[in-house]
Amino acid sequence: xxxxxxxxxxxxxxxxxxxxxxxxxxxxxxxxxxxxxxxxxxxxxxxxxxxxxxxxxxxxxxxxxxxxxxxxxxxxxxxxxxxxxxxxxxxxxxxxxxxxxxxxxxxxxxxxxxxxxxxxxxxxxxxxxxxxxxxxxxxxxxxxxxxxxxxxxxx
Length: 155
Description:
Blueprint: H1 5-15, H2 22-33, H3 36-53, H4 76-80, H5 87-114, H6 116-137, H7 143-154
Helix pairs in contact: 1-2, 1-3, 3-5, 5-6, 6-7
């Protein structure tokens, strides 16, 4: 089955939903009319987030994080997980979040250049996502509560 460029873009958008909210904000217009800059930003974001996720340093928390092969969407187990992150997990998660956010900020710069109005919406969603992750790092919410809140950003 050959995928058209538009189908590939749609697949990448779906792949990036959790953590950024970009798919929700760009679902229609980006696929239909998105610039090459926006499309490349999505592809770069996907690659960057996948590379961060797969780093050996993050193996201890990987089971708690939505995986690239699941389009960065939380599994039912992750959504229902009631455990709080341990001190070690919180430290690892903080490092992970720095790298993951760097991926998002790089993509945001590209989106903002191509479409400042959409860039503003994406920044708001990234800020909300980062706030949820900070609550998890601070030990204020469980893994599942954070996954549920991030899932709500997708909808």
